[in-house]
Write a structure and sequence with these properties.
By secondary structure, the protein is mainly α. The protein has helices at about 5-15, 20-40, 50-60, 65-75; strands spanning about 1-5, 45. The protein has one domain. Helix content is about 60%, strand content about 5%. It starts with a strand and ends in a 13-residue tail after the last helix.
Length: about 90
């Protein structure tokens, strides 16, 4: 599955804030979930929207309320991804 450069950059930014002991596991989980989402949507490339969906899905519910703040720090508008929080 292909990933565009902006999506790879966002993934790397997310991983940079992930504690080292779980970084590799988190990367594998995000990649697997994002690629599965892309396939469900009939896409052959993982884009930002798909990665954000995977990020929300793989984030434990107890810390999910903090994701909009993190998205803003990455220059993303959480309102654009509201569907993933519902």
């Amino acid at each position: 599955m292909n990933w565009n450069d902006a999506t790879e950059d966002l993934l790397n930014n997310i991983l940079a804030r992930t504690p080292r002991p779980v970084r590799d596991q988190t990367e594998a989980q995000l990649r697997q979930t994002a690629e599965a989402l892309a396939e469900e949507q009939g896409l052959n490339r993982v884009g930002l929207n798909t990665l954000v969906g995977a990020w929300v899905r793989t984030t434990p519910e107890t810390v999910r309320p903090d994701l909009p703040r993190q998205m803003e720090q990455f220059g993303l508008d959480p309102a654009d991804y509201r569907e993933y929080f519902e």
